[in-house]
Design goal:
Blueprint: H1 2-8, H2 14-28, H3 35-46, H4 52-63, H5 72-92, E1 97-98, E2 101-102, H6 104-107, H7 110-128, H8 133-161, H9 168-193, H10 198-225, H11 228-231, H12 237-240, H13 246-254, H14 257-266, H15 275-287, H16 290-310, H17 316-331
Antiparallel strand pairs: 1-2
Helix pairs in contact: 2-4, 3-7, 4-5, 4-9, 5-7, 5-8, 5-9, 8-9, 9-10, 10-16, 13-14, 13-15, 13-16, 16-17
The chain binds 3-methylbut-3-enyl trihydrogen diphosphate (IPE) (2 copies) and magnesium ion (3 copies).
């Protein structure tokens, strides 16, 4: 009977999962000695952020009939890993701002960012040690596969900065690796903890992957067109770093010869004051139609995620929760 009651227990709202997750995070993260190792960890994790991935893990566990509290360690592992990847990403992208505050390597230094990041990666694995048997084995297997894919995606992202023949297909495969697979894994880990069957696990993974691709496209859009007052990151950072984003690649595809030359020239220079470079690149994105195209692409991947969602064998109120989550992601400004 208990098991049965557990299965029909009511779902929480996204906001409730977030509150429960943050309470758990705050009770778990402590700063030990040496402070120079642990303080940056508490700093970055304390800066907040949207907490999307851990919320998805908790939600997924309950969608497949497990109490969310069983998924808290996995949710925290995912969020700690995500923050580790951001600390190292900000070094690689030379980013000064994260969540409206100084990045770790700016506030401390690069060595601190490297080692605190390493320690976070390790502590993500330690959190998974709280699971036993088959569940533990499956979680570790998925987590390690994903972590390696994130490295592959991040390396492609960097390699693309200095290449001038990147295709949109290559870009899409790069963002699938650096971003989408972690969103997918956050959901599948919840399903693993709930012992959902493999078919359902794969479907929820695919949902997360498509949503994650839409999410990174939106991130690229906001990087250029977000509001500096609320975005929390340096607006135009991708343009400064010559990132071969969808906006850039689509703009090249849609532009005439003169526009194409101008855009390629902009992505070959590194001016001391980048404000003109940013302004001109954004104008080109707009004038050749890439800005509209990216919106369409974000909607298309979100739609693809929703179509896969329909084939899941879960109650309609649970599908609705995931649907609303996806719709809110599309509307986000940060
Ligand atoms: C930022 O992720 C890195 C990307 C994959 C785009 P989020 O936008 O989820 O960052 P926070 O955690 O909410 O700050
Ligand atoms: C980051 O992509 C993906 C990972 C951290 C793995 P971005 O470089 O676009 O993320 P932001 O914009 O700095 O958050
Ligand atoms: Mg990056
Ligand atoms: Mg970055
Ligand atoms: Mg970005």
């Amino acid at each position: 009977l208990d098991v049965f009651l557990g299965k029909i227990a009511r779902m929480h709202s996204v906001e409730e999962y977030r509150v429960k997750f943050i309470a758990y995070l705050e009770s778990t993260i402590t700063t030990k000695e040496p402070k120079t190792l642990y303080e940056p960890i508490a700093y970055i994790l304390g800066l907040g952020g949207k907490r999307l991935r851990p919320v998805l893990t908790l939600m997924s566990a309950e969608i497949f009939g497990q109490d969310h509290s069983e998924a808290l360690d996995a949710a925290l592992a995912i969020e700690v890993f995500h923050n580790f990847s951001l600390v190292h990403d900000d070094i690689m992208d030379d980013a000064p701002l994260r969540r409206g505050k100084s990045t770790v390597h700016e506030k401390w230094d690069i060595n601190t960012g490297i080692l605190s990041g390493d320690a976070m990666l390790i502590s993500a694995y330690q959190l998974l040690e709280n699971y036993k048997g088959e569940t533990f084995r499956k979680l570790i297997h998925l987590f390690s596969k994903t972590a390696m894919e994130v490295c592959v995606g991040q390396q492609h992202d960097i390699d693309f900065e200095t290449r001038d023949d990147v295709t949109i297909a290559e870009y899409l495969s790069m963002i699938e690796c650096k971003t989408a697979v972690l969103v997918a894994t956050a959901l599948q880990m919840g399903a693993i903890i709930a012992e959902a069957n493999e078919e359902e696990q794969n479907k929820i993974y695919e949902f997360g992957k498509n949503l994650g691709i839409a999410f990174q496209l939106q991130d690229d859009y906001l990087d250029a067109f977000g509001d500096p007052k609320t975005f929390g990151k340096r607006v135009g950072g991708d343009i400064i770093e010559n990132k071969k984003t969808f906006l850039y690649l689509k703009a090249l595809e849609l532009s005439d010869k003169a526009q194409k030359n101008e855009l390629q020239h902009l992505y070959a220079i590194s001016p001391k004051d980048p404000s003109d470079k940013i302004k001109l690149a954004k104008n080109l994105f707009g004038s050749c139609g890439a800005t509209e195209k990216i919106q369409g692409e974000i909607e298309a991947y979100t739609q693809r995620a929703f179509e896969g969602l329909q084939t899941l064998k879960i109650a309609s109120d649970k599908k609705e929760l995931l649907l609303q989550f996806g719709k809110n992601l599309m509307r986000r400004k940060v």
